[in-house]
Design a protein that fits this description.
The structure holds two protein chains of two kinds.
Chain A lengths: L1 H31 L4 H5 L3 E4 L9 E5 L2 E7 L2 H5 L3 H5 L2 E3 L2 E7 L10 E3 L4 E4 L4 E4 L4 E3 L11 E4 L2 E4 L4 H8 L5
Antiparallel strand pairs in A: 1-11, 2-3, 3-5, 4-5, 6-7, 7-8, 8-9, 10-11
Chain B lengths: L9 H9 L1 H10 L2 E3 L8 H20 L9 H12 L3 H28 L8 H23 L4 H12 L9 H8 L6 H31 L13 H9 L8 E3 H26 L29 H7 L4 H13 L4 H4 L14 H20 L4 H26 L5
Antiparallel strand pairs in B: 1-2
Classes of the chains: A alpha+beta, B mainly alpha.
The structure holds FE2/S2 (inorganic) cluster.
The site of FE2/S2 (inorganic) cluster (FES) has 11 residues of chain A, from loops.
């Protein structure tokens, strides 16, 4: 009786020590897989918006991801719906699409057709209009908008300006 | 046994220390195999041999492969293929084996399903086998990343995005798995580690479990006959080899197994030397480029059916269907409610179920390869729904089956 309770105590004590060790090492393992600080720090890109041509899609690179920049023609500006307007970045009276060039379905890069002014994601056939709003499933939502800050003629990607915060608050982007 | 005698031979010396005679008796000479099984039962041995080929060729590839985003592509496509003598051989063996191993796994699985080898006390064989299948899938996927070509990169992008869980938007989890915003250096190193260490270790352990699960309930047979292994073994040992329903694994049964393995190896090396390209996607001969997606992304043929189950649905139901397809096979022994462990041909509605499932998965495989447009999407959608309905129907149709 005495013996077995002693053994029981040792068992519990060992269990407690092992449990603390297991939790601590799981925490260390989780943290070891986190993004390195150097990778995080490289996450900003500045674009000069005056360089883009109308209805010509340019793919920039930010955090290793493609960023679509498309300057609207006056005709496109004219037919903007309210929904499209909410997704548009306005700089000095010009409208731009600035979107993450990865399909919101599974992350392929959609292609832009300047004649039909729409995007087609060849992977599973999703389509988007020229403002990056989804027009045909499977993509569950329009192309995401990267965090941006307007700075005169420049756009800083990776920083959250008031316009971006507003888009987030109104649910235009994630 | 702590009493040792002066050894009379090397064999005796080993026997006193490793009990080689006992091990050989238990594992080979008195390990009983039913006589009435056909060549389809040799798939296990073929898989073991193929795994051996993968291991050896992998070790040779490992000596020149460089897990670095800047050099990985060239280390495979230039160094190993052009500079290392016989490097092409290891790569082609590795590539072909990685593809063929799935063909054999599927044959192995469907043999088990057809003959009801997952039932009545053999559930653990089935479950450990399915665990092996899943681990092999992860092994194949992580290996596919390593040459760092376009398909590697984009397959890595698409598959890791699945972990965001559709509208759950667990993007943090995806970035944690990648160690970066996109597949990059951390990702490549991680998958390299998984492919050459962690997953092979898991596979070796699971192979041990799979064999152990088989050793006690013994292997099933072509007629689903319940054999009294001890009585039959006694007949065999008494010299009544003809009357006995079983034979010893070694060397009797092995000789037949190895015959099948021999034929397989001729076919295998024919592929390695003359048709290695079927296992190599041309898209993967372009180096990875994060700013350009290949026009049409598809996985290797062995994942097409489950990929196609994901594809025709909107994002969330698609993910659920995909998850369903991944785990449902595990439940097979419990969903099949009939008491009969006999070939599907002698069972009730199950015989139609079996062939429908097989054909449906072939259709899904075909549609998964084709671009998701027009009639192909429709066929894919129907096949995906049929797949799910078949599984839902299984417990009901097998419950009705009369005991034979
Ligand atoms: S990734 Fe674009 S439609 Fe699926």
């Amino acid at each position: 009786m005495k013996d077995s309770s002693r053994r029981g105590f040792m068992g519990k004590a060992f269990g407690a020590v092992a449990g603390v060790g297991a939790v601590a090492s799981l925490y260390a393992m989780k943290k070891s897989w986190d993004m390195l600080p150097s990778v995080k720090a490289a996450g900003f890109t500045t674009l000069d918006m005056s360089a883009y041509k109308e209805n010509e899609l340019v793919t920039e690179k930010w955090r290793g991801k493609p960023i679509f920049v498309l300057k609207y023609t006056p005709e496109m500006m004219g037919k903007l719906t309210e929904k499209q307007k909410a997704r548009t970045v306005f700089i000095n009276g010009e409208g731009y699409l600035v979107n993450l060039g990865l399909c919101t379905h599974l992350g392929c890069i959609p292609g832009y057709n300047s004649d039909t002014q729409s995007f087609l994601c060849a992977c599973h056939g999703g389509t988007y209009d020229f403002a990056g709003d989804v027009t045909k499933a499977p993509p569950p939502r329009g192309l995401d908008i990267p965090p941006f800050k307007i700075d005169g003629n420049k756009l800083v990607l990776g920083e959250e300006g008031p316009e971006y915060k507003n888009m987030k608050a109104t649910g235009v982007t994630l | 046994m702590a009493h040792f005698e002066k050894a009379t031979s090397l064999h005796d010396w080993m026997n006193q220390r490793l009990a080689v005679d006992t091990v050989r008796r238990v594992m080979a000479k008195e390990y009983w195999i039913p006589k009435n099984i056909n060549f389809l039962w040799a798939m296990g041995m073929i898989l073991a041999v193929t795994f051996g080929l993968l291991l050896v060729s992998g070790i040779f590839l490992l000596m020149y492969y460089q897990p670095n985003v800047a050099t990985a592509f060239d280390s495979v496509n230039y160094t190993i293929m052009k500079e290392v003598e016989f490097g092409w051989l290891w790569r082609h063996i590795h590539g072909v084996a990685a593809s063929v191993v799935f063909l054999i796994i599927y044959i192995h699985m469907f043999t088990g399903i057809y003959y009801g080898s997952y039932k009545k006390g053999r559930e653990m064989i089935w479950i450990s086998g399915m665990l092996l299948f899943v681990t092999f899938s992860a092994e194949a996927f992580s290996g596919y990343m390593l040459p760092w070509g376009q398909m590697s990169y984009w397959a890595g992008m698409v598959i890791t995005n699945l972990f965001a869980g559709g509208s759950l938007h667990a993007d943090g989890l995806v970035e944690w798995i990648r160690g970066d915003y996109v597949p990059a250096q951390a990702f490549l190193n991680r998958f390299f580690m998984l492919h050459v260490l962690l997953l092979p270790l898991a596979i070796l352990g699971l192979i041990g479990l799979h064999f152990a699960a088989l050793r006690i309930p013994h292997v099933n047979n072509q007629d689903g006959e319940e054999i009294d292994f001890e009585a039959e073994a006694a007949k065999y040992k008494a010299g009544n080899k003809k009357e006995s329903k079983v034979i010893a694994f070694a060397n009797d049964f092995m000789s037949k197994d190895m015959m099948v393995v021999g034929i397989y190896l001729v076919f295998f090396f024919y592929l390695v030397f003359f048709h290695y390209d079927f296992a190599m996607d041309p898209v993967n001969f372009d180096p990875a480029d994060g700013l350009k997606t290949p026009a049409h992304i598809y996985p290797e043929w062995y994942f097409l059916w489950s990929y196609e189950i994901l594809r025709p649905f909107p994002a969330d139901p698609g993910l659920v269907a995909f998850g369903f397809a991944q785990v449902i096979f595990f439940a097979l022994p419990f969903l099949d409610r009939s008491p009969n462990a006999v070939p599907a041909a002698r069972r009730g509605a199950f015989k139609y179920w079996f062939w429908l499932m097989l054909v449906d998965m072939i259709v899904l495989t075909g549609m998964g390869k084709l671009p998701p447009e027009g009639i192909f999407s429709t066929i894919g959608l129907v096949a995906a729904i049929v797949f799910i309905l078949l599984w839902i129907a299984l417990p009901f149709i097998t419950k009705k089956e009369k005991a034979l």
